[in-house]
Amino acid sequence: MHLVVPSDDFAAAWREAHAEWGPGFHEDGFGLTAGDDVESAQGFSDWVERLRADAECTYRWIVQGERVVGAVALRHDSHELADRLGHLGYGVRPSERGRGVASWAVVEVLRLAADVGMPRVTAVCEVDNAASIATLERAGGLRVDFIGAAVRFSISVP
Predict the structure, then answer these.
(1) How far apart are the first and last CA of the chain?
(2) Which of 3, 43, 76, 141 is most buried per CB count within 10 Å?
(3) Which is nearest to 81 in space by CA: 33, 136, 140, 25?
(4) Does residue 139 form part of some domain?
(5) Residue 30 included in any domain
(6) Above 70 in pLDDT, residue 80?
(7) Is the backbone of residue 57 left (phi > 0), alpha (psi -120 to 50) or beta?
(8) Whose CA is closest to 114, among 150, 153, 155?
(9) In the prediction, which pLDDT does 20 show?
(10) Which of 79, 39, 36 is nearest to 57 (CA)?
(11) Bridge partner residues of 145 (DSSP)
(12) pLDDT, tens digit, 9 for 90 and up, residues 87-132
């Protein structure tokens, strides 16, 4: 597996992953909004360009072979959602869950955090999301507090 900068080169592979989530499901880590047109070539290209141009968030797709298996987003300290949603967002396509993809990706994104000078990152997940809780704890995450139905973790950047 490796992390790649979002690119039009992965349009077909990304759409395959996107279809697996199904309509109406949020795909963490992809930076996808309801207004993004990812079906047309131009719309997909515009969306990819928006991701690449975002100075407050680093987006990477998790690729294995020719398949997009997930995504990570590293919100920098200046990002408006970093306090509420954490610095780290990630999502793994349903068919790839339970195989260590998220654990691998979190470790890799911590390297990106080090590259931009972040000493710690926070991550937030639902209190009933046992898989994400385990992933964040494996990465050294410590539970900091609860925000409604979510738990916030703090992770030291190596």
Answers:
(1) 21
(2) 141
(3) 33
(4) no
(5) yes
(6) no
(7) beta
(8) 155
(9) 86
(10) 79
(11) 152
(12) 899 999 989 989 999 999 999 999 999 998 999 999 999 999 999 9
Q: Rounded to the nearest 10 degrees, how much is the dihedral formed by the CA atoms of 111, 113, 119, 125?
A: -100
- Cut 0.85: pTM above it: yes
In eight-state DSSP terms, residue 10 is G
CB 50 within 8 A of CB 124: no
Encoded tokens for 123: 């991550």
Q: Which spans in the chain are helix H? A: 11-21, 41-53, 82-85, 101-115, 130-138
Residue 123 forms part of a structural domain? no
The total of structural domains in the chain comes to 1
Q: Residue 72: what pLDDT?
A: 95
130 is a domain residue: no
Per-chain mean pLDDT for the chain = 89
Residue 94, token pair as written in the block: 């349903």
Give the bridge partners for 148, in sequence order. Answer: none
22/100: higher pLDDT: 100
Q: What is the CATH number of the domain that holds 39?
A: 3.40.630.30
Report which of residues 76 and 30 the model is more confident about.
76
Rounded distance, CA 57 to CA 53, Å? 9
Q: How far apart are CA 151 and CA 83, in angstroms?
A: 13
